[in-house]
């Protein structure tokens, strides 16, 4: 990672279970990763939703899936959950959480969303999603609503193949888009794209690579923050588009940041080289890249602009926060609705 950062600069790193040994080790890793950024600190990010998708396990608080909040349903409980989650993330130096999931759990056969979703009900998912976003961001952790334009009503896992969301534009606006619209109104910092085809708007390219779909996010929903791709190594993309080509197409379509998460450093380097060459050749307009960088800079200024607490102070702080009794009580309250 240091070599990549020296040659290309990096927007951030994302931690997986393979990177996590202990809270103190995560904090040290976060501290060394943050300084890999050039003009701005690098994001130190993670998928910490609760339930099946949680990279930080005990002694961190083990959170039930977000569906428990939807069964409560309690905005107050969702707020306390997000406040506790943010405190633990900040205590170990994590500045960006790829949460909450804003997909609606409208298809019982969905193999990848399920209980990661807050609810099948539009109003419930919107209210709880905005509560989580507001609380995370008030505590200094950037939130990311995912996966636009909606991955809830699919029967295929995009980690394995390319799903199709076959709804009319009116249905998409009224249902799938609604939690994202609420999140944008609440000031969500990032929105993650879904690797799904939406024939009503583009029957050839998945949303991540589709200018038409991503224009809906900008023009119809008015999102002014950072659009980040889901992992380009996922088979929904990688089966048909080499990762470097997909990266160029994603930025051209409107993504401002890209995830390449397999851990294959050679592929990451090839992807960065492809972006540089695309700009040099004119295949990727410089204005589009400048726009992406400007959006990222604005969001980083919001969350990473203040000087970080000294390492010694942060090392002391995590012991009082991670897995503390107060957070365990919130998790137990959520688990009642499992």
Which architecture would the CATH scheme give at its second level?
Answer: Alpha-Beta Barrel
Any idea what the radius of gyration is?
Answer: 19 Å
Number of strands: 9
* CATH fold label: TIM Barrel
* β-sheet strand percentage: 5-15%
Low-confidence stretches: none
Number of helix segments?
A: 14
Helix percent band: 40-55%
Q: Estimate the global geometry from the Cα principal axes.
A: globular
Largest sheet: 7 strands, parallel
Write down the domain tally: 1
Order of helices and strands: HEHEEEHHEHEHHEHEHHEHHHH
CATH class: Alpha Beta
User: Helix/strand-derived class?
Assistant: alpha/beta
Strand order of the main beta sheet, please?
Answer: 1-2-5-6-7-8-9
Tell me what the structure shows.
The chain is α/β, with parallel strands linked by helices and 338 residues long. The protein has a single domain (2-333), classed as Alpha-Beta Barrel (TIM Barrel), CATH 3.20.20. It contains 14 helices and nine strands. It has a seven-stranded parallel sheet, sandwiched between helices. Strands 3-4 form a two-stranded antiparallel sheet. A hairpin with a 2-residue loop joins β3 (48-50) and β4 (53-54). α4 crosses α14 (325-335) and α10 (243-253) crosses α11 (265-281). The longest helix has 19 residues, at 286-304.
């Amino acid at each position: 990672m240091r070599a990549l950062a020296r040659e290309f600069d990096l927007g951030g790193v994302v931690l997986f279970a393979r990177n996590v040994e202990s809270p103190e080790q995560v904090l040290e890793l976060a501290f060394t990763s943050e300084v890999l950024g050039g003009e701005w600190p690098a994001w130190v990010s993670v998928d910490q939703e609760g339930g099946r998708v949680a990279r930080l396990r005990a002694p961190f608080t083990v959170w039930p899936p977000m569906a428990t909040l939807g069964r409560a349903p309690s905005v107050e409980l969702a707020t306390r959950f997000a406040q506790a989650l943010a405190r633990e993330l900040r205590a170990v130096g994590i500045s960006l959480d790829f949460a909450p999931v804003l997909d609606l759990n409208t298809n019982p056969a969905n193999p990848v969303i399920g209980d990661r979703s807050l609810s099948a009900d539009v109003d419930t998912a919107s209210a709880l999603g905005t509560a989580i976003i507001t609380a995370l961001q008030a505590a200094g952790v950037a939130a990311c609503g995912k996966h636009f334009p909606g991955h809830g009503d699919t029967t295929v896992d995009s980690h394995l193949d390319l799903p199709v969301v076959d709804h009319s534009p009116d249905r998409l606006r009224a249902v799938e888009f609604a939690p994202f619209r609420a999140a944008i109104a609440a000031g969500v910092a990032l929105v993650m794209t879904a690797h799904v085809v939406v024939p009503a708007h583009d029957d050839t390219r998945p949303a991540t690579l589709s200018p038409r779909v991503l224009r809906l996010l900008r023009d119809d929903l008015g999102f002014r923050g950072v659009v980040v791709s889901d992992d380009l190594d996922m088979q929904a993309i990688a089966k048909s588009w080499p990762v470097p080509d997909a990266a160029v197409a994603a930025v051209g379509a409107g993504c401002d940041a890209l995830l390449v998460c397999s851990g294959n450093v050679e592929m990451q380097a090839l992807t960065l080289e492809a972006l540089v060459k695309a700009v040099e050749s004119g295949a990727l307009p410089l204005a589009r890249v400048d726009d992406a960088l400007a959006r990222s800079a604005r969001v980083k200024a919001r969350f990473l602009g203040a000087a970080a607490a000294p390492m010694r102070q942060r090392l002391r702080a995590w012991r009082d926060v991670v897995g503390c009794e107060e957070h365990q009580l919130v998790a137990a309250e959520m688990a009642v609705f499992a």
